[in-house]
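Lines hold sequence, tokenised fold; shown next:
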Amino acid sequence: MIHPTALVDRKAEIDDTASIGPYCVIDANVRIGAGCRLYHNVYVTGWTELGPNCELHPNAIVGHAPQDVKYQGERTYCRVGRGTILRENVTVHRGTTPDSETVVGESCFLLAGSHVGHNSRVGNRVTLINNVLLGGHVVVGDGVTIGGSTGVHQFVRIGELAMLAGVGRVILDVLPFAMADTQGKIAGINRIGLRRAGVSREEFSDIREAYRVLFDRRGSFREGIGRVKETVTTPAGRRLLEFLLAESKRGFAGRPKGVGYAPDGDAPVQAH
């Protein structure tokens, strides 16, 4: 159903089961999947695709031109996955270089005022609390939660199942499975998040041992990566290793100054 006050370009492809609310604007080249619901005053533009059952709340803007002075109107893309919810005033910008794209995965929940910058890739089941700001080219792994009003620097990577504190800043890569404080420093392992995600005891033990090796004060972080190669044995541990070995344009977040890890990896302790 399309409300009579909505402005929909004839070239837009909208599934018959989608609902387009009052005063929405849908430009050409947009594709809207089955079961999508757009509340009033939503704007979808550019070469943008909304997967099935997405929900866009008032004043959400998806696929608008990137905030990049180098952008000259080239064809770039924006994709939002199945079942993702964008609350009020969320903005998701399309890519900035020709044929590039911005991607938000499936079953994500982007709360009011959050922003996904150009060329960012947000995984599945990611939650951005109110007013989270992702700069350009940010990569967010599956199952990540970022606390409200936290800003993430361009090109930062955030590993799967990480949980980041609110009202913070993140300028370095955050490891998978980590808890990060307001300065983006690693404060421990996201134990509760891992349990809720169904991570096995064996995998948790593997992750905990990898963290212990990485942050061992007797060697450098780079040396720790080398030792992690020899310790991980589970799929989760190997995914952590893959993250460590992949290209990092920002470097890795470390521990807060003066803080080490308890032997069981449950909580940070003051280093001696």
In short: The radius of gyration is 20 Å. Helices lie at 191-196, 201-214, 221-231, 235-245. The first strand starts at residue 7 and ends at 8.
